[in-house]
Amino acid sequence: MKLTLNYDELTNCMRCGFCQPACPTFKETGLEAASPRGRIALMKAVVDDIMEPGEQFKAQMDLCLGCRACEPVCPSDVKYGQLLEQTRDAIERHEEHGWFVRSTRALMFKQMFPHPKRMRALGFALKAYQRTGLNKVARATGIMRLFPAHMRNMERILPEASSQGVVGALGTFVPAKGKAVARVGMFRGCLMDVLFLGSNVNTVKLLAECGFDVVIPDSQNCCGALHAHSGELDQARELAKKNIRAFREANVDYIISNAGGCGALLVEYNHLLHDDPEWKESSAWFAERVKDVSQIIMERGRIPQLAALKNESGETRPLTITYQDSCHLRNVMRAGNAPRDLMSRVEGARFRELQGADRCCGSAGIYNLVQPDMSTQILDHKMEHVKETEAHYLLTSNPGCLLQMKYGIEREQIGDKMQAVHIVDFLYERLANRE
Ligand code: SF4
Ligand code: SF4
After folding, report:
1. What is the pLDDT at residue 155?
2. CA 16 to centroid of ligand 2, rounded, Å
3. For residue 90, how many C-alpha atoms fall within 13 Å in the half-sphere facing its CB?
4. Calpha distance 238→137 (Å, rounded)
5. H or E segment and range at residue 257
6. Least confident segment among 141-150, 201-210, 239-248, 400-409
7. For residue 433, what pLDDT band results from cuts at 50, 70 and 90?
């Protein structure tokens, strides 16, 4: 940690505690050590040789969601997320995992996520599992009970997987409708392209409808966010370099993400590669072009008419919608009101603000799998406010949040009244006169 942590950033914290009310783990536990200020103090104590980075230290670092809600409220502008990544990287370098964890990490981080073709093959296998009814057999015979409860819950709500990918569905270029306002590169993601192909396709079509020429470079790969948040910074840097090359060759004005978790790392590629002089200029070129789909449409797009859907009798029914923020879109990409402004353009839809929408839902990458108890506790509190909205649609801007919201709706048994949907799918479905 002495080697990896930025000491100036550690001492930037003036211990005011303004960050504490924003922190979900502090709210749930009331413990100083589970707050941003407490975690920074722990990091500093280790670097200053006051304490050993033992199991309790590691447990507090693991309990952090990495939601970065502590950053926008910090008067000293402490880059907490970067300190956390550096700490986790240092821990991981000395971690002695058992064979199961070691091989699972190697399989996912090295053999699967970085390889789009292998991810599509995984999508093919998952789709076969879902379509042939093997999933129902596995549940009925009790085989699924071999897996932990939180994995069984996630398996039940997974959307239908796909092996086609957005390039297979649309090709690598989709022209703007009318005169192009800009040329954008679509970041397709790794899991997004397998589990949410429909949202990727709708993102490209929505961008084209709003006046953007859309390029989808096929040589791009996973953003590296799961690696960076799990202490695999070297691997994240390699993935970043490949993406920078792919989008530079595509000569785009902007790089567009439809997943807050991916976009937040893409927008910080300059920081990720700050120690590498060879990549200084191109990582800055990349980072300054990254935008969320809602941001680019609000800033540069020609926004088409977004109309309420009609039923078979030609009537529109009053619709209430609400929105759960993606922490990384809000706290790192600083997308501000762009998603809400876009939603407000839908005719006939009444927006009801979700109390605590800016607070993490407990998904946080793979947090819901590795910290299921805290994740579920946070989700249950979130769902109390979700129910108060009485919304028909609960919209989100990130695949992890979307799955977590689907799980929350299932857990509360309110699926007959409310559905969780990606904001792009909701908007695209309401595009009047779409092709
Ligand atoms: S708000 Fe910033 S300066 Fe204040 S305690 Fe939290 S991290 Fe430190
Ligand atoms: S990243 Fe989120 S959970 Fe972690 S300390 Fe900051 S606010 Fe708390």
Report:
1. 82
2. 15
3. 20
4. 40
5. strand 254-257
6. 141-150
7. low
Ligand nearest, relative to CA of residue 77: 1
Spatial contact of 223 and 237, defined as CB atoms under 8 Å apart: no
Q: What is the pLDDT of residues 371-429, one digit of tens each?
A: 999 999 999 999 999 999 999 999 999 999 999 999 999 999 999 999 999 999 999 99
**Ligand index nearest the alpha carbon of residue 14:** 1
Cα of 70 from ligand 1 centre, angstroms:
8
Indicate if ligand 1 lies below 6 Å from the C-beta of 74.
yes
248: pLDDT strictly greater than 60? yes
**In the CATH hierarchy, which top-level class contains the domain 7-94?**
mainly alpha
State residue 229's pLDDT score.
85
CA distances from residue 253 to 147, 168, 170 in whole angstroms, order as listed: 45, 23, 20
Which CATH number describes the domain made up of 319-429? 3.40.50
CA 20 / ligand 1 centre spacing (Å)? 8
Cβ proximity of 410 and 338 under 8 Å: no
The CATH 1.10.1060.10 portion of the chain extends over 7-94
The answer to whether the CB of 40 is under 6 A from ligand 2 is no
**Measured distance CA(89)–CA(81) in Å, rounded:** 12
Residue ranges of the alpha helices (H) in 1-54? 7-12, 24-29, 36-47
